[in-house]
Amino acid sequence: PTGTKLGPWLFTIMINDLSITEVDLWKYVDDTTITEAIHKGQTSSNLQHLVDDLGNQVASDKFELNKAKCKELRISFARSPPVFDPIMVNDTELECVSQAKILGVTFLSDLKWNAHVDEVIKKQQIWSHVRSVRLE
What we know:
The chain is α+β, with helices and mostly antiparallel strands. Helices cover 33% and strands 21% of the residues. It comes from Nematostella vectensis (Starlet sea anemone).
């Protein structure tokens, strides 16, 4: 129940029963991130199976995955990254993005920090401006 003191506890109980063991599963409040390492020469991914499994577990708890918020970020250092089938949630193809924000940190597909550093600098400049206006 949203807005109640019991709500966060109920959600925690439901989200902690997710049992996907083949990959790393990062959970924080109502966000879940699945990561899978695909090594050089590997030609297939288990991610579709894992996303299906996650969807089934979430559905059994009377939740559903928010397709609009589900994204795929492929991190690769190869000049020509391997091509894999798109990940589907129900019958909707997940958007494959070049950057994603996870817990306030912006990750790029090449693991460079430019976008995150630019964001931090921009926020700092805004706060500096707000502070200088307040002091006047």
